[in-house]
Design brief:
Elements (H helix, E strand, L loop, with lengths): L11 H15 L6 E3 H19 L5 H33 L2 E7 L4 E7 L1 E3 L2 H13 L6 H9 L3
Parallel strand pairs: 1-4
Antiparallel strand pairs: 2-3
Length: 149
């Protein structure tokens, strides 16, 4: 995973997850509605499949270990991505999602004009946002480690 910006929507992994949400959810509704609960399920399924593929052939015990190590971290990235999308929508009244189409992967921007978000969805997003602010969170501890703190 690489990164070229400071937001999830600017990271390679965040863009990959958004592309998955676009392909499996947004295209199906002609980019009319972004359903947060559905997007959370899409990223969960994508993360689980990614972990399964990366660890094919390993023992069940190791697979459980890889899930316990990787799923929470990757889910945090996905939840932050969805929170960023929701924040963009609240700020501007729409979310612009870029779809890459054709054999040349031409970019086509689609405005998403409606979000469906339940209080339970907001709680999941808020819990993830709060967790990354704690010093013991893996991302914060990695920053400290990289800077020798």
């Amino acid at each position: 995973m690489g990164a070229w910006g400071i937001t999830e929507r600017q990271s390679d992994y965040g863009l990959d997850l958004l592309d998955t949400i676009t392909a499996t959810q947004l295209k199906a509704v002609d980019f009319a509605t972004f359903n947060v609960a559905d997007a959370l399920e899409v990223i969960k399924a994508d993360i689980m499949e990614e972990i399964r593929k990366a660890n094919r052939g390993c023992s069940a015990e190791k697979l459980v270990f890889y899930f316990s190590e990787n799923f929470p971290r990757n889910f945090t990235h996905g939840a932050l991505l969805i929170a960023e999308c929701l924040a963009d929508y609240y700020r501007t009244g729409e979310l612009i999602v870029t779809e890459y189409v054709g054999k040349n992967c031409d970019p086509v921007d689609h405005p998403v004009k409606e979000f469906v978000v339940a209080p339970a969805d907001l709680k999941i997003l808020l819990d993830e946002l709060q967790s990354v602010q704690k010093p013991e969170h893996y991302a914060v501890s990695q920053i400290f480690h990289l800077h020798g703190l």
